Amino acid sequence: MNHSEIRGKAIPEGFEPAIWCAKLGTPLYVYDADEMAKQVAAFKAAFSVEDLHIHYACKALTNINVLRLMKKWGTGLDTVSIEEIKIGLLAGFKPNDIMFTPNMVGFEEIAEAVEMGVRINIDNLPFLLRFGQVFPETQVCVRLNPHILAGGNINISVGHTHSKFGISFEQIGDIKSILSKTGLKVEGLHIHIGSDVKDAESFVKVADMLFDIAVQFPDLAFLDLGGGFKINYKPEDKKADINELGRLLSASFNQFCQKYGRTISLIFEPGKYLVSEAGYFFTQVNVVKQTPYVLFAGVDSGFNHLIRPMFYDAYHHITNCSNPDGALLAYDIVGNICETDTFAKQRELPEIKEGDILCFHNAGAYGYTMASNYNSRPRPAEALFMDGGLHLIRRKETLEDILQTQVELEFLK
Hints:
By secondary structure, the chain is of the alpha/beta class. The protein contains 13 helices and 18 strands.
């Protein structure tokens, strides 16, 4: 591994970490609007189908300003909770451009989504039957489980035989029986096999399986192939080749439409692919600690702000913004939480000193959205780098924010 690879991906031109962190404080999330726009455009350009729709999987990054940008760039929205639907509506998305794909929620949440007018995606037989009995005139999408193990980590692989997501491919007969009993019409079929899938063959295999099933449903308006496209974390990582994927899937989807007898829509739900590489997480070094065995660099954050390295064993490039040309030393980069919260072990970085600013790259997806108040620490600020300027899009929390939903009992004062 050469020196530049160890240092990681370069911080974009125009970024001023020292100035920003001095002004807004650390920890700090920063998102590059130009990078997100580039990813959306590249995804659209990769496919040659008559009616392509991109539904941004907003669970990756739900800041309302990011959602408004996605709407501006022509995407729809993939949501998994009532709250995400409401944020999407506030951001200006039309109900018909929002897909609701919940899992293990109460039926009352699905009923509320129906009242909002968004598209509904059902992933279990009991609720499909109940939906048909309660809302027989409302068309529905059905999420299927293809029994394929794919993805970068078992926690983000959602299409295998023991996954809680989707109705098994082996239960197509049960689906059709429910439709016959209730008169319910299926407007779409949906599959999502997991996250960090890098090979086009996995998507093509799933698509072919879906095409074979789709011909049994005469009222389809769309097929939804989900998301999960891999992006680069390590220098040697192989990113999903979206152009190759687009070439292969466009050809097979167009052939399916010919066989089906009419053109329908093709939907994808990228989340991480659109926003991950646009995100940067800046922290400040509190202390450099040498033991007989390990050299630690302790920063002013922890898994309460960026849990991916601990939860998924995920890799994030780290840059020493304060001393990019220093001599390389091996550090354990650790947080300030009262648990083992190691961001990186024995990572070679330019010499780190107290007060230095470290940048964690590829932090745009599942960073802030998975943050917590563990140890009663406030969540960090978020900012958007756009048109050459930095714009605060979420202020840092305060202790008052943490306490505001707590109800103090007068007799305990």
